[in-house]
Specification:
The complex is a heterodimer. In chain A, a hairpin with a 2-residue loop joins strand 7 and strand 8 (about 75-80). Chain A has strands at about 5, 10-15, 20-25, 30-40, 45-50, 55-60, 65-70, 75-80, 85-95, 105, 110-114. By secondary structure, chain A is an all-beta fold. The relative contact order of chain A is 0.33. By secondary structure, chain B is mostly beta strands. In chain B, the strands form 3 sheets. In chain B, strands 2, 5, 6, 10, 11 and 12 form a 6-stranded mixed sheet that branches. Chain B has a 4-stranded antiparallel sheet with strand order 3-9-8-7, with no helix packed on it. The termini of chain B are far apart. The chains are: A mainly beta, B mainly beta.
Chain lengths: ~110, ~110
Amino acid sequence: SQTIHQWPATLVQPVGSPLSLECTVEGTSNPNLYWYRQAAGRGLQLLFYSVGIGQISSEVPQNLSASRPQDRQFILSSKKLLLSDSSFYLCAWSAKGGFNQPQHFGDGTRLSIL
Amino acid sequence: AQSVTQLDSHVSVSEGTPVLLRCNYSSSYSPSLFWYVQHPNKGLQLLLKYTSAATLVKGINGFEAEFKKSETSFHLTKPSAHMSDAAEYFCVVSPMNRDDKIIFGKGTRLHILP
């Protein structure tokens, strides 16, 4: 069966520090991969998605970036965190077929910026 | 352009009574529609999906949803609430063309009263 792992579960970082959140998928190959941000009381905001290694689509301009160095690995990064980056970050995967395919989510990373 | 509106931010029902979570959508094309559930500090889990095969969709944990094109609605129901149903529920509309993006509703928090 397929599984998705995100780490760390919680993270506290100072303003201006770098960020690296990692997501890996097991039990499937060539998935579509997604990064979302979820603010309290609001729905999910799609940040990035990837249909293959090295292929990244950015949905929202900001100080975050994403990379896909391997087929089942998706990384969310920042060179300098802002206070406004405090949020709950979720990684997801789906089978090929675009956004019509159900997405399967990791348990998220709670990021707090001090 | 697509949009999705969850009409209630909070719903409270007694254990054993029916659940109704309301969702209205707007789409230029026949959309794919999803309901996801999220428990605290967890990722989202797919409850059910509509993709035009049948207007009444059955999902996991006894939930179902009915697609009503004339009312542009996709309400989620369950005949009898269980304490374990307490969570946040998201209605999602998915694009059918390249110009639209996946859109998550803002969520409905379901409270189950003993």
